[in-house]
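Quick start: what a row looks like.
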Amino acid sequence: MQRSTRAICATTLFLAIGTIDLANILSVSYVRPVQAQEEYLPTEKDFVGKWTLSGSAIRPPRDMTDAPTPEQEAAATEFQQTLTAFYGAFDYLEITADGRYNFHQPGDPTSGPCVWCGTWSFKKSSLWLELDTAPRLDIYAKDGDMQMTYTVEPDEKSKYAWQVFGWTKAE
């Protein structure tokens, strides 16, 4: 009788240890679907298509160590209005799979020379337009809007680093 009691106790102990280990393994490997959506990393093909301007905002540069002054915010807001008018003059931004982009103006022919176009590259889950200001395009959720920020300042420190533009897929 003592042997069977010891065997039951030993078996129970091994089962308890195994259950705890299994629970630890499952808690490490299980990823909730909501987390996966939050951690979405776009691919090149997510950017391909036609995009229309859907909004703009100013945001102090991430590397700004001091609080922005009212003068800096006012200058950035004024510059935002200029850039929004500039982008608003285009019908849409077209990004093609062959590495080109084109800001289409109303009445542009579908072929021929473009007014504001160039090439792009894809790195670090972002699409980068080859311009002096290095606009960076990001998509944070599957089938979501695209956000444009600037990563390079032309000449001296300007207001480009404050600018954020939203683009919505047209097709």
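That is the whole record. The chain has a mean pLDDT of 80. The helical segments are 2-29, 33-38, 44-47, 70-88.
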